[in-house]
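Title: Comparing notes on inverse folding

I've been comparing how different people in this forum approach sequence design from structure. To keep things fair, I'm posting one structure and asking everyone to reply with a full sequence. Here's the target:
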């Protein structure tokens, strides 16, 4: 069932058009998240959908009825809004704040019946907030306040809840708690949720639809799994010195330095080393990694030069030769200790090549395993127990430097 629809909607202030020509549909029980850079118009859209701001052009429909035709109490029973404004409410408790949400049902005198009180406790329960019911709202933490405001919205018994950045200022536990409450409301009670977020990862993993807003227009709308690609998210925020990996949901700093270190990666062993070297401004290239390896995902997002192999296939001689030529161009090789199964055993040949070429080699591999693989002892090989020991032995930042 269509809960909210916009037709050629343009929102803004006076003669300033902020977002133009919006045509979207949100169904019952869906969670729609608006993503976009600061100032792109997320709050302006949400205020317009909540009837707090008149559209400049076009129309908004709630359950097929024009929003402009829906009056006060009737709208409050359908739609509840949680905005970012901070409330200063003196000596009101959490219970009192949630009780304010009952006004569409209590009438002008606002007298609470037993059933209103029961509803308020139920809403406090939904946000796991019974224990803060008697505490003063002004004395609550940001996370607790956010949950109380959500409970106040729930007390209206709405079919749609609109929230502007409900996870801002919250730690990761509270962000996830708020999102999990919203998900529960949408799935179990069929409430439609429309919100804006700055947490891309949480948005892509928790919402049913996402809308990307930039420079006065909706640049994409649809399933997060399709809309939230590496490129679309990087473009949305004009990310230049980093990359977004939609598959893993991480942002990785780009490594733009000339490579001086080659990392033999694989099985996720390369990731902490890529990240540490990137943080220190040291250029890296890497191999030989299968294209379905997590090291490949991170390395490609960082923009590293990679020697890679087709998933599940044995490393080819040609790939090995190309990796050797990458090693020729660096001073140091780090053996991350990647597992050496049948399909990637050639990485040990690569390690032997690095040693025989006189490169400085730092390895986190088990000593016994190395002795089984390498024919002789090499003076240019240093065994390390951890990534930090690798970094200690990298000789960066000058003599005596502990980077
Ligand atoms: N009351 C107002 N009158 C005029 N312009 C406004 C008003 N409020 C916001 N704007 C402008 O509208 C544009 C969109 O602002 P809006 O707050 O909707 O963006 P946003 O995407 O929510 O940003 P943020 O992520 O920083 O909260 C901005 O250029 C802003 O300066």
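Reply #1:
Here's my take.
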């Amino acid at each position: 069932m269509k809960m909210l629809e916009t037709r050629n909607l343009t929102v803004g202030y006076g003669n300033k058009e902020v977002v133009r020509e919006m045509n979207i549909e949100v169904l019952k029980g869906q969670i729609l998240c608006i993503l976009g850079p600061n100032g792109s118009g997320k709050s302006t859209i949400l205020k317009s959908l909540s009837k707090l701001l008149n559209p400049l052009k076009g129309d908004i429909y709630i359950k097929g009825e024009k929003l402009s035709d829906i009056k006060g109490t009737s709208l409050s029973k359908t739609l509840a809004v949680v905005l970012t404004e901070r409330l200063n409410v003196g000596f009101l408790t959490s219970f009192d704040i949630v009780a304010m949400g009952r006004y569409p049902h209590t009438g002008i005198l606002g007298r609470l019946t037993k059933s209103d009180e029961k509803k308020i406790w139920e809403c406090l329960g939904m946000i796991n907030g019974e224990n803060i019911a008697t505490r003063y709202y002004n004395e609550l933490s940001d996370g607790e306040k956010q949950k109380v405001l959500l409970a106040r919205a729930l007390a209206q018994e709405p079919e749609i809840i609109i929230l502007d950045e409900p996870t801002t200022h919250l730690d990761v536990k509270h962000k996830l708690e708020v999102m999990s409450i919203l998900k529960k409301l949408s799935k179990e009670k069929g409430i439609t949720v429309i919100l804006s977020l700055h947490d891309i990862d949480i948005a892509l993993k928790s919402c049913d639809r996402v809308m990307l807003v930039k420079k006065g227009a909706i640049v994409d709308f649809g399933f997060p799994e399709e809309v939230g690609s590496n490129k679309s998210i990087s473009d949305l925020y004009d990310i230049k010195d980093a990359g977004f990996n939609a598959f893993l949901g991480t942002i990785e700093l780009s490594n733009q330095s000339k490579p001086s270190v080659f990392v033999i990666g694989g099985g996720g062993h390369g990731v902490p080393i890529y990240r540490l070297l990137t943080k220190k401004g040291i250029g890296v290239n890497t191999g030989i990694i299968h294209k379905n390896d997590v090291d490949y995902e991170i390395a490609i997002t960082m923009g590293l030069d990679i020697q890679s192999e087709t998933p599940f296939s044995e490393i080819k001689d040609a790939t090995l030769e190309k990796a050797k030529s990458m090693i020729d161009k660096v001073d140091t090789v780090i053996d991350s200790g990647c597992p050496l199964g049948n399909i990637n055993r050639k990485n040990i040949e690569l390690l032997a090549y690095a040693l025989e070429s006189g490169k400085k080699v730092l390895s986190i591999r088990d000593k016994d395993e190395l002795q089984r693989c390498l024919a002789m002892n090499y003076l240019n090989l240093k065994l390390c127990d951890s990534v930090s020991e690798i970094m200690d032995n990298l000789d960066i930042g000058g003599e005596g430097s502990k980077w």
